[in-house]
């Protein structure tokens, strides 16, 4: 129909041209012009018919069959039973079963190429957590590289977690009529197993500090498992914790470790092997920790030498990791003196910045006590220098005067102004742990939460407490009065709060020293030791040559914003006064970025910078002040969640969808020989057709343009335009 219409239009165009030539008296120039117009009409009709030149290309070489073998970390999963009571990993099964002889049936009619994909990156800075399985990219490369591809066979567990969706490239294989076959290597139902995963230790630990080691236990057992996580340092068992894992579930928890010696420590976490476990090697994790014996400077300020002050001072003085200084504002006798006593309060930025933790007892603002300027300095050293502040009020009620100073904004609680001298009790009361307090580092006397709570219930109580109305917004209540309530609920007595880059702790009783009854220093010393170290941790992340660097988060991940704060002191120990300092950040891939840390107002020598973490691995951070000859270099390691997880069941669904879309087939391990046979009898690839669209070819467009130009010039010459 289309061709007949075109023929009719061509005949009509020829008749019109002939009539025009006749009317012109059969002039030769008009005849040439009409012939040219007729050719243009034929050219336009030819274009509208959209003709193509089809060439059939027959291959003269053997077609290719490519075998893609998954070399990702998930292939280390041991879930293939071989022989009697022997379990092999997926990668081991492929190495043992897949040899050159496996492909002999295919090699008789096609070339066989075996390639691996998703293996470890050759980049030395790449971490295991960066690696993943990309099913799409290797399939796409094959299409771009080979024009004689007969089929593709993929041996994988189907754990696709990186790259484009594989169904997209499978659509192109379907268009090219190239089937994709697959062998699911592994089990859909995992073997019964317990797996200990995800240990993420802190950057460092201090002697006597409570170090939290988080962990993840995943169960592939059909029953609930009640077991223990055991922590060993070297061959010595340090502590253990009872955990309950739900059937076919997982549990995230943490265990506490308190090192006693400085130096590198090898820590091992392990789970007892259950009788039905098929894989026993993944019940243990080993890590290294750098344990430091830093000298923490502590300042204790009080008025009367009450029992709480005396036993606190003794506990800190006997701690080998603490350097304690005391200021005693005795109302009748003046400033106290003796070993570790200061003649006056360190009322300057230079002097106060040296202290990691400051204790304020039953002391306030007034004559022969603290001044308003002292209160401003204390707030500054907490907010700007990451120091800790601990408030332990007493029966004189002097801490009530702090609400009239700069310290008001960082107090964790709101004191009752009507009862500055506190609440005396007829009967002994105790501290009752809150939900947050049961899990907090500061309140841990035992790694087991239940036993720890029992210890707190049995601790000697108190006969006096501060009068507290409520905790302030942003505070965390760790313990409350066991009996007294107010309009806001149970009276909070052990409360923490972040203030700037530092921390503040409020203990609303004067009887922690009574915890020594019957056990001596077992609980009293331990409590104050871990409080001091917890508050000092951020200040000692990295320091050298008068520069102290703290940062958060302590264990960043790609995509996180790393907030860094550097405190720089000159040779005299005073904070430097510069508008900025310089530094460099070298990424794991070796790229170095020059950065500038801007000074914070207040004159504390604090400089801040935020930096976006873009890749996983160790970053080298250098902070320097050439003018003051100060420099610090440290490493900050960024970790990313591991994409490739060992122990996951295979993903047969994605492999089956790819095979069905392309006309292939997906089988399990037992079906590999039959699948090889099917690939070997596949018909030869059909000849390739090469189509050249004549109607849209540039040469044809050039011819039409030339004819139109000649026709227009001809009309000019004969005087028709």
Q: In which range does the helix fraction lie? A: 10-25%
Unreliable stretches, pLDDT < 50, 5 or more residues? 121-130
Oligomer: single chain
Overall form: elongated
| Tally of distinct domains | 5
CATH architectural name of the largest domain: 3-Layer(aba) Sandwich
CATH superfamily annotation of the largest domain: Class I glutamine amidotransferase (GATase) domain
The total beta strand count reads 38
Report on the biggest sheet: 9 strands, mixed
- Rg over CA atoms: 40 Å
| SS element count, helices | 15
> Which fold name fills CATH's third level, the topology of the largest domain?
Rossmann fold
Q: Span between N and C termini?
A: 37 Å
What percentage of the residues does DSSP assign to strands (E)?
Answer: 25-35%
Structural class: alpha+beta
Strand order of the largest sheet: 18-17-16-19-20-28-27-26-23
Please report the first level of CATH classification, the CATH class of the largest domain.
Alpha Beta
Average the pLDDT over all residues and give the rounded result.
85
Keywords summarizing the entry:
721 residues, Rossmann fold, Immunoglobulin-like, 9-stranded mixed sheet, 33% strand, elongated
Write the layout of secondary structure elements.
Layout: H1 2-23, H2 28-48, E1 52-57, E2 64-70, E3 78-81, E4 87-89, H3 90-97, H4 104-107, E5 111-117, H5 136-145, E6 149-156, H6 166-175, E7 180-184, E8 194-197, E9 205-206, E10 211-219, E11 225-233, E12 236-245, E13 250-257, E14 263-270, E15 284-292, E16 296-302, H7 307-317, E17 322-330, E18 334-335, H8 349-352, E19 357-360, H9 372-385, E20 388-391, E21 413-415, E22 423-429, E23 431-433, H10 435-439, H11 449-458, E24 462-465, E25 468-471, E26 475-486, E27 489-499, E28 502-507, H12 524-536, E29 542-544, E30 547-552, E31 561-568, E32 580-586, E33 592-599, E34 606-612, E35 617-625, E36 630-638, H13 652-662, E37 666-667, H14 672-680, E38 688-693, H15 698-717
Parallel strand pairs: 2-5, 2-6, 6-7, 7-37, 9-15, 16-17, 16-19, 19-20, 20-28
Antiparallel strand pairs: 1-38, 3-4, 8-10, 10-13, 11-12, 11-14, 14-15, 17-18, 21-25, 22-24, 23-26, 26-27, 27-28, 29-30, 30-31, 31-34, 32-33, 32-35, 33-34, 35-36
Helix pairs in contact: 1-2, 2-15, 5-6, 6-13
